[in-house]
Amino acid sequence: MKKLTLGLLGLLLILIIGMVTIPFFVNVDRFRPEIVELVNSKLNGHFDLGKLKLTLWGEIAVEADEAILTDSNKAQILSVGKFKLRVPVRSLLSMKPEIQVVMQKPKVQVKRDQRGEWNVLSLMKKEKSEGTGEMPAPEPKSLDVPKAVEEVKAPNKQTSPSWAERASVSISIEEATLQVEDLKSNSHTELDRLNLETGALSLNSLPVFKLSGILGASTEGRGGISGPFEITGESKDETLNLSANLDKVSFSMGAFQKKSGSPTRLLATIKKTGDLYISEGELEPVKVTGDYLKQDLEVTAQWKASSESVDKAVLKLKAKAFDCEVSTQVKSFENPKIMANVLSNEMDLDELVDWVKMGNAPVPVAKRAEVEKGESPSPVSKTTKNTNVASPSTLPSSPSPVAKAATGEIVFNVKVMKLYQMQLEPVQGKFLLKDQKLVGIFDETRLWGGKLKGTTQVDLRSKVPQYAFQVQLNGLSLGEAVASKMEFLKNTISGSLSGEMSGSGEGADANSAKKSLNANGKMFVAGAKLNTFDIHKMVAGGIKGVYEKVSEKVPALKGKELKMGDVSSEFRKITATFTIKDGEFQSTDFVAEAVPQKGVDIKGSTKVGLLDYALKADWEVYDTYNLLRVDPILIERGKPFRIPISVGGTLLSPEYSYLQIPEALVQVALKNLGSMAQDKATQEIKKQAEGQIKNILKGIFK
């Protein structure tokens, strides 16, 4: 026993002496050129490795001062300040190797150019195909490994678990930086001061880990995210529990912002079941603000998903007089089938959104000042224009195979929606996605005392989305619309509107969609009134000064004055068929039929610009009920009094032109005078003929 003890002590002493002295005799740095040559032979770039050191005191450790990897353009992709690989001797003796990896200040720079090519994907050399006539790359020199190092053979899996199954790896990364720059999408992502500490990672268990750092990401025109974060993970019963603290992270996305300091916690679990990874999680309530929001919006989310599909994802939005729940399922990520439901009891967007700040307020009151200055109004002022709206050039031009294969159905049911002081109830229908076409079916909705329904279709296959639509209106009270914020309705027509319209166009924003819109339809307005047109003033201005001009050519009118009756601006009905093309509304058969004994009829053509509201109308006014009481000499025989009037300016400020009236009335008067002279001559001839006949008869019957 004593001899055995002395033998073991001697062996231990030899091992200790070996671990201390071997690093002095074995120079691992001499393998560095061979390692560098081996790596570079596989790369379209260059790899540099700093001095290597070997330590055997209590552990087998290899340390490198630095490592740098560049691409073929000498742009740096990877750099590591210091790298260390350690394996404690005790773990080898216990047959459970514990590998520890330590990296200090690593930096990874990933870049995609405007052609869509990533620098990291072009690093590895492609294998040369046979028969190309190209010489194969020279084989790197084999490493000169000491003979004392013997080949380690894997144990028989049937008799005992392999060393790999018993081994574990722990990782420590300090002060890392990850930069991703995408020139094609104008986006930039950076993780700075990134620290990662993991527990023992093995094939049979997941580690406990802690990841922290500073996140910064932005996409041109679409917002960004920045701030310090911390993520912790812990495994239990083959389940990894994750917790993310995003309190100090701020983000902006379109109209929405989350400020730093607003509590934000994300909880999730990941579990492996067979070949699938199952994830469940929730986003605890977080307050979202925004330049365009009148009040904070509370956002919560829950999900359950696997590596192949999304079983359920629920997003909830809540604010005063506003609630919305979106539930989504996605079957198969390779051939996605999306099923979603949008539910809301009340969606008061007027309480939530500041339309003026957002730049989508329809013709604000301030536009009247522009009209008074002689300027044409535009739907969005220069100071409130929304610059965050995506333009056609920013939309994806080549959808992925997954996007092409996607199908889906989105069902929506909003009991009450308020928008621009309009109240729609209910807003129900669905969207269908197939072959990159999105079809919307809107069920009948009550609005302004009437009803409307319609369909839409958006073709997503082209770079600029193409759309088509159909809409039917029945009995919408434009008087109620006048009370809303939609001022373009205040300055058009009031009454009960019915009609239909269908059209198509293209565009990724409102202005381009209006410019390209091609549509046709018909409308019927009962109990109508032209809100900005004083018909009495318009007609009086047209004919009061006409008598003097016409009397110069028609002496019979000299000294006569017009004593017209009252003319109402209300009409029994207004009808028209119309087209919309090149950003312009046009109707060639506009008819406004007067209330009997109260007004005049109007017929003619009307054009209105959809972007600048420019107005051009050529009308004929018919005094069907003789309310103007003009001299009969100005009225065509068998027809009502008629005058032509042209209208220009804008819908907000119409400008009347009466230049055609004098000439038209002179022609009528001269025609009437000619007819009167002809009638008088005919009567004289008739009298003379009658006298001659009487004389002849007297001579015959004497």
Question: Can you tag this structure with a few keywords?
Answer:
three-stranded mixed sheet; 702 residues; alpha+beta; disordered C terminus; 4 domains; elongated; single chain
Rounded mean pLDDT score = 75
* Oligomeric description of these chains: single chain
Question: What is the helix fraction of residues, given as a range?
Answer: 10-25%
Number of strand segments: 37
Count of helical regions: 14
First CA to last CA: what distance?
189 Å
Q: Characterize the main sheet.
A: 34 strands, mixed
Structural class: alpha+beta
* Percent of residues in beta strands: 35-45%
Return residue spans where pLDDT drops below 50 for at least 5 consecutive residues: 1-25, 140-160, 362-395, 677-702
How many distinct folded domains? 4
Shape: elongated
What would you report as the Rg, rounded to the nearest angstrom? 43 Å
Description:
This protein is α+β, with helices and mostly antiparallel strands and 702 residues long. It has four domains: 43-118 and 164-205, no CATH class; 221-291, no CATH class; 303-361 and 400-435, no CATH class; 448-677, no CATH class. 19% of the residues lie in helices and 44% in strands. The chain contains 14 helices and 37 strands. The strands form two sheets. It has a 34-stranded mixed sheet that branches. The longest helix is centred in the last third of the chain and has 40 residues, at 661-700. The N and C termini lie far apart (189 Å).
